[in-house]
Amino acid sequence: MAERGKLITVMGDEDTVTRFLLGGIGELNKNCHPNFLVMEKDTTIHEIEDTFWQFLNQDDIGIILINQYIAEMVRQALDAHQHSIPTVLETPSKEHPYDATKDSILRRARGMFTAEDLH
């Protein structure tokens, strides 16, 4: 079993997940559950949210990468996660470009600083 914060998970379209799996991040936990979710046409919002919560509650997960368009589907769950580990990073996908105004981490960071702090 990996130590806390050692694994990266990915939730995304087939192209995104395949790239990360080819990069070597694929793992199965002791219950044979993978550390990735491929978003398909028939994947439900319930499945996405359940998988997200499962990843949040695994002690060996350090980073959750999620395509931003999928993050939008479960935004309430992402916004409810307030801990630094696992870190949730929103990524672009082939069909959906990244929009910084939707990114939950950037929105939180903006709330931490005033305009004067950035000069």
From TrEMBL:
<dbReference type="GO" id="GO:0030672">
    <property type="term" value="C:synaptic vesicle membrane"/>
</dbReference>
<dbReference type="Pfam" id="PF01990">
    <property type="entry name" value="ATP-synt_F"/>
</dbReference>
<dbReference type="InterPro" id="IPR036906">
    <property type="entry name" value="ATPase_V1_fsu_sf"/>
</dbReference>
<keyword id="KW-0813">Transport</keyword>
<protein>
    <recommendedName>
        <fullName>V-type proton ATPase subunit F</fullName>
    </recommendedName>
</protein>
<dbReference type="GO" id="GO:0046961">
    <property type="term" value="F:proton-transporting ATPase activity, rotational mechanism"/>
</dbReference>
<dbReference type="InterPro" id="IPR008218">
    <property type="entry name" value="ATPase_V1-cplx_f_g_su"/>
</dbReference>
<comment type="similarity">
    <text>Belongs to the V-ATPase F subunit family.</text>
</comment>
<keyword id="KW-0406">Ion transport</keyword>
<comment type="subunit">
    <text>V-ATPase is a heteromultimeric enzyme made up of two complexes: the ATP-hydrolytic V1 complex and the proton translocation V0 complex.</text>
</comment>
<dbReference type="InterPro" id="IPR005772">
    <property type="entry name" value="ATPase_V1-cplx_fsu_euk"/>
</dbReference>
<dbReference type="GO" id="GO:0016020">
    <property type="term" value="C:membrane"/>
</dbReference>
<comment type="function">
    <text>Subunit of the V1 complex of vacuolar(H+)-ATPase (V-ATPase), a multisubunit enzyme composed of a peripheral complex (V1) that hydrolyzes ATP and a membrane integral complex (V0) that translocates protons. V-ATPase is responsible for acidifying and maintaining the pH of intracellular compartments and in some cell types, is targeted to the plasma membrane, where it is responsible for acidifying the extracellular environment.</text>
</comment>
<dbReference type="GO" id="GO:0033180">
    <property type="term" value="C:proton-transporting V-type ATPase, V1 domain"/>
</dbReference>
<keyword id="KW-0375">Hydrogen ion transport</keyword>
